[in-house]
Amino acid sequence: MDLKDQFEKAITDSKSLSQKPDNDILLQLYSLYKQSTAGDVSGDAPSNPFDFVNKAKNDAWSALKGKSSEESMQQYVDLVNKLKG
Fold first, then answer.
1. In whole angstroms, what is the distance from residue 18 CA to residue 60 CA?
2. Which of 79, 83, 75 is nearest to 16 (CA)?
3. 23: how many CB neighbours lie within 10 A of its CB?
4. What tens digit of pLDDT does each residue of 13-70 get?
5. Secondary structure (3-state) at 33
6. Is 30 in contact with 56 (CB distance < 8 Å)?
7. pLDDT digits (tens, 9 = 90+) for 8-18
8. Are 69 and 32 spatial neighbours (Cβ–Cβ below 8 Å)?
9. 64/36 Cα distance (integer angstroms)
10. Which of 24, 31, 50, 51 has the smallest set of CB atoms within 10 Å of its CB?
């Protein structure tokens, strides 16, 4: 199975984990998914000081700037496999 197929399977698997991951893991999954599918974050960060969720998402994704799509996909797959046990 090539990396793209593994990534697609991991996306499906992430939706049916036996336990919901904590917020830090959810941010990792989100940022790795976005970096894999959209590349580096673009645009301005959320400016509303009370928009904690979108700021956290943006910050997590921004931290991956420069990471290749393939490397992000592999890390996503590895993280989901770890969460599956």
1. 24
2. 83
3. 10
4. 999 999 999 999 999 999 999 999 999 999 888 888 899 999 999 999 999 999 999 9
5. helix
6. no
7. 999 999 999 99
8. no
9. 10
10. 50
Q: What is the DSSP letter of 19?
A: S
Among candidate residues 85, 52, 81, the one with its CA nearest the CA of residue 29: 81
**CATH match of 3-84 with 1.10.510.10:** no
Residue with tokens 């580096």: 40
Helix segments in the chain, DSSP class H = 3-14, 23-38, 52-62, 69-84
Which tokens is 15 given? 């939706």
Structure tokens at 76: 């996503």
> How far apart, in whole angstroms, are the C-alpha atoms of residue 49 and residue 68?
30
Direct distance between the N- and C-terminal alpha carbons of the chain, in angstroms, rounded to an integer: 20
Q: What angle do CA 52, 55, 57 make, to 5 degrees?
A: 110
